[in-house]
Design a protein that fits this description.
Layout lengths: L21 E6 L4 E5 L16 E6 L5 E6 L4 E5 L16 E6 L5 E6 L4 E5 L16 E6 L5 E6 L4 E5 L16 E6 L5 E6 L4 E5 L16 E6 L5 E6 L4 E5 L16 E7 L3
Antiparallel strand pairs: 1-2, 1-18, 3-4, 4-5, 6-7, 7-8, 9-10, 10-11, 12-13, 13-14, 15-16, 16-17
Length: 272
């Protein structure tokens, strides 16, 4: 299923790094709550009730986005073009992540066994499909220039492709909860890894600015995204809690009375 032409609530504030920052949380059927440059209005359900959102990515100007479902559908909102989906290709492996090509004319879809599907202008740099993984892949992150990407497994394993450097992994760190998210630094020479329990691990030139676990947050983490404008990152939990670390801006979080949680995906405008 692919929906196009749906209303997009994004808007642009005055110029400057803060105005170009925004993030959004998405519930299982695609209900979206955005902050900062992405507005603050709900988008209605977009995924079949029997399916669930697995990934969220924005176009470069944040005037559109893609949602990928676990079953392999890709839903478009705003000016995001629909160029295909794993489901169109007959894929059966569950989708775990979605990333945009830098020009907004393509996207990457990662699946549990480490496979990567590329659409439009997205370049293929490799995958771990066919390898014997200890744990399934859970997320992927693009290098800022679009010339490579990293894939993350639940045990903290990191796989680097293209010009994305391998800077280490968390497989030997005795994680107390599974790894769930990865985000690259603006330089493309390092990355952050977040665990479901709220910890953040740093590799390469990534700096530790803190984590949700330090703040006593109890809800499981669903995402970590970094900004291409400043050095820092956001973390989000399935309860709708979002916190900013480093030089990123806190732009709001979902009120406790909001009836949509648990959230399943998190994305940011201007993300690396």
């Amino acid at each position: 299923m692919a929906l196009t032409g749906t209303t997009w609530s994004g808007y642009h504030q005055s110029s400057g790094p803060a105005a170009e920052m925004g993030y959004a949380l998405v519930a299982a059927q695609g209900e979206m709550y955005g902050f900062g440059s992405l507005g603050a209005e709900w988008e209605g359900p977009a995924i079949d009730p029997a399916d669930e959102v697995a990934g969220l990515a924005f176009t470069p100007r944040a005037t559109g986005c893609w949602l990928a479902s676990r079953e392999g559908s890709v839903v478009c909102r705003g000016d995001a073009p629909h160029i295909g989906s794993p489901k169109d290709l007959g894929a059966v492996m569950p989708v775990v992540a979605l990333a945009s090509a830098p020009d907004g004319l393509g996207y990457y879809v990662a699946v549990e066994d480490g496979g990567v599907y590329t659409f439009g202008s997205a370049g293929f740099f490799g995958s771990v499909s066919g390898s014997e993984l200890n744990q399934p892949v859970v997320d992927m992150a693009m290098r800022r220039d679009g010339d490579g990407y990293w894939m993350l497994a639940a045990d903290g394993g990191v796989f680097a492709f293209g010009s994305a450097p391998f800077c280490g992994a968390a497989t030997d760190l005795a994680l107390t909860s599974p790894a769930v998210a990865i985000a690259g630094t603006p330089s493309g020479l390092g990355y952050w890894v977040a665990t479901r329990g709220g910890d953040v691990l740093t590799f390469g030139d990534a700096v530790d600015f803190g984590c949700l676990a330090d703040l006593g947050a109890s809800a499981p983490v669903i995402g970590l995204r970094s900004s291409r404008h400043v050095l820092g990152y956001w973390m989000a939990s399935e309860a709708g809690v979002v916190r900013a670390f480093g030089d990123t801006y806190f732009l709001g979080c979902v009120p406790p009375a909001t009836p949509a949680p648990p959230f399943v995906a998190f994305g940011a405008a201007g993300a690396v």
